[in-house]
Amino acid sequence: MYSIDPIGFIESPYKEKFAVPRQPSLVPSATSRVRLTGTANCIESVRGIEQFDHIWLLFLFDQNLNAGWKPTVRPPRLGGNQRIGVFASRATFRPNGIGMSAVEVKGVTQKGDQVYLDLGGVDLVDGTPIVDIKPYIPYTDSLPHSSGGYAESPPETLGVTFHCGAREILKSHPNRTQVYKVITEVLAQDPRPAYRKNSQDDKLYSVRLFDLDVKFKANNAFVTVVDVCKLTNDK
Fold this sequence. Notes:
Blueprint: E1 8-11, E2 31-36, E3 54-60, E4 72-73, E5 84-85, E6 98-111, E7 114-120, E8 129-135, H1 138-141, E9 159-162, H2 164-171, H3 176-188, E10 205-209, E11 212-218, E12 222-230
Parallel strand pairs: 9-12
Antiparallel strand pairs: 1-2, 1-8, 2-7, 3-6, 3-8, 4-5, 6-7, 10-11, 11-12
GO molecular function: tRNA (L-threonylcarbamoyladenosine(37)-C2) methyltransferase activity
Domain TsaA-like: 4-145
Protein name: tRNA (N6-threonylcarbamoyladenosine(37)-N6)-methyltransferase TrmO
């Protein structure tokens, strides 16, 4: 039996699985950080990491570890209807629940005895356990002529609009510029389930980002932010 202990945990704007970007770097305005823990929480462990623009994060899909897995999955990029092998996908339900993301290095911060690794373009739920960090090496990790299979090109994005009331609420947020950008970039990815797309959809969706509950509606061209409210401590 093998066991892996986390070396840290992610702190990100994504407070739930819904609407987390399906790939890294799709929401560049979202900044996050790894809070190192245990013996990994020392400044020596990240010495020299700022030489690299990007790193690989290896992490656990901790919210799915007890849910089991199946040999085939239905990727959103295929409309949520066509099945392919789990190892031909980046599905979160996997035999060992391990994921990896290439993310931007923003810097290293130390507050007292606590060391943080500041990052950009993260696609992880707040609190995700990190099990390893490795530098991204462009000359060997970048393979621009590779085939991307069914994900050969990036998905189309939607326009995002805000009702006047929602926009006014955001104006009072202390981090309003970044929050506005992140909400816009997240919703432009159309986080709805694949089966909801290309059909009439009158559902009011809700997603938790930062300290906010963002309510929106969507069609195949636009996302409209209907309301924004502050999350309470019991949510």
